[in-house]
Write a structure and sequence with these properties.
This protein is α/β, with parallel strands linked by helices. It has 2 domains: 140 residues, Enolase-like, domain 1; 237 residues, Alpha-Beta Barrel (TIM Barrel), CATH 3.20.20.120. Helix content is 39%, strand content 17%. The chain has 14 helices and 15 strands. The strands form 4 sheets. A 7-stranded parallel beta sheet has the order 7-8-9-10-11-12-13, covered by helices on one side. Strands 1-4-5 form a 3-stranded antiparallel beta sheet. Helix 5 packs across helix 6. It binds 2,3-dihydroxy-5-OXO-hexanedioate and magnesium ion. Keywords: Lyase, Magnesium, Metal-binding. Its cofactor is Mg(2+). One of its GO terms (molecular function) is glucarate dehydratase activity.
Length: 418
């Protein structure tokens, strides 16, 4: 089952002005879509980041992968590692932690691993979940991922979500999202306003949605003392507290004083981080993300490792499209230890590159597709439109900071400001 051709298409899709510690989301989010065209016309799909620095790494490995057997994943990894050598890809926002050579190779490999698994599934007539050991659940739970946000992009009309900056508007956005998708837990992206304002937001959600598990993630926007204070104030209210402060050592200091587990997608982002973080009991939950953890099978390896140390597993997300959602659903279904509702940015987008109908949220969960491979079909016209948007928008990397400075000239990213 050899790869005959590889088509990499950078795409862009409209994204609302969502706020975080680094600033605000630009009008378009970028992704890279890969099609592995194999023997017998089988096509394997993959999706990952669309930043130029990442696409450049991907473009380097493409010529080496033509003729490769999609069933030879160790060989795929060796070839990618050989081409990338000591390369380190880094993004500007740092919202998925630091970068290393190991993480760079894992990130590039993941894009192709998912596409190979999709092709394998088509060849065998089995869904990807079966190639990962089979379903441990029929549907995968997701949480309502709330952001504080501006009402409109610069020069544009107010979007359908409107401005979300107060506890009342946060509750309103949660209600809309839960009415539409049926989510049974809520995550709030924090680190945007003074901690007390964000505590008030969480309290308002707790009152409006009694019993729903709540999380807040200020992306390391608080100092250790502030994080400990917030943990105390929200004791009994939060399911977990995500990345309150930077670094494994800081997280360990907070974890020692906090009653709820600390979660992370910033200080444990590669297998090299596990030993120091787990030894110091810095985290109680790791947010997996196949895009940078080295694909679907290494996400399962991460899960087993976490389980051995009594650490829970959840799932991180960045702005993404349907190919990534399908991959997230298959791996989560095949990973019994992944018991927390996963993150997804899905509700914030309005277009996709896949044909509609294969992935649906019912009661906050997505049923695992039972069609071969990932179970999603590329819509060539939608892909072409999304590529035109990529070319037209002129964005080549995610840069929330520079865009934020067009709203607030003096803005500085909030790296543990409070
Ligand atoms: O859990 C997280 O840290 C994220 O989801 C990172 C994302 O980049 C998020 O902050 C965003 O989309 O602005
Ligand atoms: Mg996070």
């Amino acid at each position: 089952m050899k790869i005959q051709d590889i088509v990499l298409t950078p795409v862009a899709f409209a994204d609302p002005p969502l706020l975080n510690v680094m600033g605000v989301h630009e009008p378009f989010a970028l992704r890279g879509v890969v099609q592995l065209v194999c023997d017998d016309g089988v096509v394997g799909l993959g999706e990952s980041y669309g930043d130029l620095a990442f696409l450049d790494q991907v473009r380097q490995v493409i010529p080496e992968l033509k003729g490769h057997d999609v069933f030879d994943l160790p060989g795929l990894q060796r070839k990618i590692a050989a081409v990338l050598g000591k390369a380190v890809f880094s993004d500007q926002h740092g919202l998925t932690g630091g970068f290393s050579n190991r993480k760079t190779i894992a990130t590039v490999y993941s894009l192709f691993e998912v596409a190979c698994l999709d092709a394998q599934g088509h060849f065998l007539g089995r869904p990807v979940v079966d190639l990962l050991g089979g379903k441990s659940r029929d549907a995968v739970d997701f949480s309502a991922y709330l952001f504080y946000k501006y009402g409109a992009h610069l020069g544009a009309e107010e979007d359908a979500w409107g401005e979300v900056t107060t506890p009342e508007t946060l509750v309103g956005a949660a209600r809309t999202m839960i009415d539409r998708y049926g989510f049974k837990s809520i995550k709030v992206k924090g680190g945007v306003f003074e901690p007390d304002q964000e505590i008030a937001g969480i309290r308002a959600l707790a009152e409006a949605f009694p019993g729903l598990p709540l999380r807040i993630d200020p992306n390391a926007g608080w100092k250790v003392d502030t994080a400990i204070r917030v943990a105390r104030e929200l004791d009994g209210v939060l399911e977990y507290l995500e990345d309150p402060t930077p670094g494994i050592e800081g997280m360990a200091q907070v974890a020692a004083q906090a009653n709820m587990p600390l979660a992370t997608n910033m200080c444990v982002v590669s297998f090299d981080d596990i030993e120091p973080a787990f030894r110091q009991r810095a985290v109680g939950v790791v947010l997996s993300d196949h895009h940078f953890w080295g694909g679907l099978r290494d996400t399962q390896a991460l899960s087993k490792t976490a389980e051995c140390f009594g650490v829970g597993l959840s799932m991180h997300s960045n702005s993404h499209l349907g190919i990534s959602l399908a991959a997230m659903v298959h791996v989560a279904a095949a990973t019994p230890h992944l018991t927390y509702a996963c993150d997804t940015h899905w509700p914030w987008k309005t277009t996709d590159v896949i044909a509609p109908g294969s992935l649906a949220f019912v009661d906050g969960a997505v049923a695992v597709p039972d069609k071969p491979g990932l179970g999603v079909e590329l819509d060539p016209d939608a892909l072409a439109r999304a590529h035109e948007d990529y070319v037209r928008c002129g964005q080549t990397k995610r840069d929330d900071v520079t865009y934020m400075r067009r709203f607030v000239g003096s803005f500085e990213p909030n790296t543990a400001r409070w």
